[in-house]
Amino acid sequence: MRRTVLILAALTALSGLAGAATMGDDGLHKEDWFSLTFKDVAEDIQSANDEGKRLVLIIEQRGCIYCAKMHEELLADPEVADYIKANFKVVQFNMFGDEEVTDLDGEVLTEKTAARKWGYVFTPTMIFLPDVIPEGKTTAEAAVVAMPGAFGKHTFLNMFRWVREKGYEGDEHFQQYHARIINELRAQGKLTGE
Question: Where in this chain does the record put each Thioredoxin-like fold domain (predicted)?
Fold first, then answer.
């Protein structure tokens, strides 16, 4: 009886975890706050703008250990997840998927042909889009930056902050921005690693 109560308590605690990713039929981890769209990149940029957010596309694939790390460690961290949810519209792409995608240049593709066209070969890859819809450019050409891989918490979170603050328009390169933020956190005693 005691064992049953402990198991039920553990299951209840796990089911109550906010932001816990589930596994989709396509083998990709799913966050309940990811946006389900028609994958028309121009429409998604406009929709993000209407919400006061920026658009980021995340390309993943089934069995990707780094995608799992991103979901299980980074996106499960409330500080990271809360910042992204408040500031970004996130649309997930399957690197080998067959869902229809409309590129910024108007070409209709599948997820897998879009990933190939855009030249993205690593998963996860975060593609940060501008807040102004460019004319005649592909999604890859329009991206303000792309981040391949699941880095440590602060590198990952600082990339989202740098994009939100439009650091790419200024003179402070992301690596300089990241180093400055890390040094500030260390000086405040809020960080001992990374």
Answer: 49-130
Q: Give the CA distances from residue 62 to residues 85, 91, 117, 145, 151, in Å, rounded to whole numbers and listed in that order.
A: 23, 16, 20, 24, 19
H or E element in which residue 127 lies:
strand 125-128
Mean pLDDT, rounded, for 164-182: 96
- Which residues neighbour 46 within 8 Å (Cβ) at sequence distance 6 or greater? 133
What domains can you pick out in the chain, each with its CATH number? 21-151 (3.40.30.10)
Residue 44 and residue 46: Cα distance in Å, rounded?
Answer: 5
Cβ atoms 157, 47 nearer than 8 A: no
Around Cβ 104, how many Cβ atoms within 10 Å? Answer: 23
Enumerate residues 6+ apart whose C-beta is below 8 A from 115: 59, 93, 95, 121
Confidence of residue 5 (pLDDT cuts 50, 70, 90): very low
Contact by Cβ (8 Å): 93, 55 = no
